[in-house]
Each structure stands twice: as structure tokens, then as C-alpha cells.
Amino acid sequence: MASSTSTASPVFALSSSFQLKPSNSRNNNLPSTFFPSSPFISRKSSCRAMATVIKENEDQKVVAEESFPPKAFPVQDGEGGSNQGPQNSSSDNDSDKWIIKFEQSVNIFLTDSVIRILDSFYHDRHYARFFVLETIARVPYFAFLSVLHLYESFGWWRRADYLKVHFAESWNEMHHLLIMEELGGNDGWFDRFLAQHIAVAYYFMTVFMYMISPRMAYHLSECVESHAFSTYDKFLKAQGDELKKLPAPEVAVKYYTEGDLYLFDEFQTSRPPKSRRPKIENLYDVFVNIRDDEGEHCKTMKACQSHGNLQSPHSYSDSLGEDNEALCDPAK
């Protein structure tokens, strides 16, 4: 995905704004400062498989929920709202690259700091570590929802697909947490204390970050999901034989195989609905599917870092093909 000309924003100072295009697409009902179009070049642990990109042009209308018009922000002379005109595109791009690098550096530092904390306390206590990890991992999604509902209350804009997908992601992570609780990951008082206090701090930090730079907030979540994928993948390789001998928790069987799986399909924005139906025969299958869920979150968070790339898979399921790419390979 190519980066477009960016400009400074009076509201989201750390985000680069996207290039404005004349189009009839309803995807343009966002404030021009909210979702920058420059995608992140992710850290070492980046995903090879990117979520499907929904491209906009004058001949192809992308369906999104239409609502009241967004709060208008002034656009000056020059494409993209630059008050210096298009001749400053080179300096704008340089500034945008510097901002991206800064945001990534901060996110990597924050993620690595939490990883060091988890490594120091949970070297051999796998289920307790997973309980803490899942308590933290679900926080960004309802933090995003908090800010999105706030903007909707202000009358700035309404974007149903973002609300649906982020809620489905939160629902998925909540079931990961329920599985870890059934496995005894929350038995220790200290584990609950640590997880809950980190989660509360993480919530307010994510809300603030999302209001300043949604791109930065989404990249941080990508880093967290990438670490989760790597953690579960290593666990499966090390403990796979033992896990195959153990029964699956009842909550996992119900979530992955029973009832209405609409929300299960909803958070997987890179694949058509109903294209993934897990089998759950033992505990090994449970952790395989949790790992694969984290890979899907990783791809969705990567796509979110560019304006207009997030849409409910139920909105365009006919145009999606089966995703044959690797889910998320932190080693790449």
C-alpha cells in the first residue's frame, strides 16, 4: 500500500492526514484527521499476510453505513489540505516518515517492557502467563470502542463497521481469557492483581493514544498480537504432545463449535465468513485456534493503520477469497 501526501493536523498532532480524493464512496465520512493513510512498516515481528485492502476509486463504490455528516475540518490550498501547496509534498513525506518511526519506536519500547515483566514472573508458569496476556490483549478493543462512541456522541461521525469488528475482537479475546481461567491461570492472587492493574493503566493509555494517533494505537495492538501469536506458537511446539492428551475446556468447545458463530467470523476481516470452522478434540486444538485467532487480530490491526481498510467481512464477503497466506510470522 502506497503512502499518500500527509499534512499536520490540529486535532491529531502526531498523525499524518490522508490524501483527499473526490469520490462518491461513503468511506469518506470520517474526519480527515482521524485515520492516516500511510501504513506502518511493521517491526521485525511483522505479518506477511496483510488483511484485504478495500480500494476506493471513482468507478467502485465501497458500501459503508451512511449517517450524519462528519465534523468538517478546513482544507487549505493544495491536495490533502496542506496550506503550503503541493510543492511541499517532499518535506511532508519526510516529516511523516519521522513521525512513523517515532511512533513505532515508542510502541516497541512499551511492548518489550511488558514482555520483560512477563518473562521475569512467568518463565515456566504458562497458564498464568496466558491469563495475564489475555487480560491485557483484550483491553485495546474496548478502548477503541470507547473513543468511537465518544466521537459518535459528539456528532462527528459514525462508522458501524469499526464498532462491529472491534466488538467482535473484544468478544474473541474475552473467550481466550475464559479458557485460561478454566485452566487455572487466575488461581494466584498476585497474577490477578498484576493483570488487572496493567489492564487499567493500559486502557487509559490506549484511549489517549487512540485520540492522538489511531495509527499508533493500532500499531501497538499489532505488536501485542504479534507477541501473543509467537508465544502460543512456541508453546505448541514445546508442549504439543502433552496437550494432545488433555481434554478441551468446555468453554472452548462451546465458543468454537456451537451456536451462532457470527461474531467469530466478524473479527476475521481477511477471510470470508464461514471459511474457518475449527475442530476441537483436545487441548492442543484449543491452543492452535487461539494462536490462529491472534494471527487474525494481527492482520486486522495491520490493515487498520491505513484509512478505509477496515470493513466488516459480512459487508463484502462475496469479494473475498480464501486466505492462503501465513497468519502472522514474528520471525519475518
From TrEMBL:
Its EC number is 1.10.3.11. GO terms for molecular function: alternative oxidase activity; metal ion binding; superoxide-generating NADPH oxidase activity; ubiquinol:oxygen oxidoreductase activity. Binds 2 iron ions per subunit. Residues 19-41, 73-95, 306-332 are annotated as: Disordered. GO terms for cellular component: membrane; mitochondrion; respiratory chain complex; thylakoid. Its cofactor is Fe cation. It is found in: Membrane. GO terms for biological process: alternative respiration; carotenoid biosynthetic process. The keyword Ligase does not apply. It catalyses: 2 a ubiquinol + O2 = 2 a ubiquinone + 2 H2O. Keywords: Electron transport, Iron, Membrane, Metal-binding, Oxidoreductase, Respiratory chain, Transmembrane, Transmembrane helix, Transport. Its main location: membrane. It is an enzyme of class 1 (oxidoreductase). It comes from the Eukaryota. The chain crosses the membrane at residues 130-151, 193-212. Residues 306-318 have a biased composition (Polar residues). InterPro entries: AOX, AOX_sf. Residues 27-40 have a biased composition (Low complexity). Belongs to the alternative oxidase family. This is Ubiquinol oxidase.
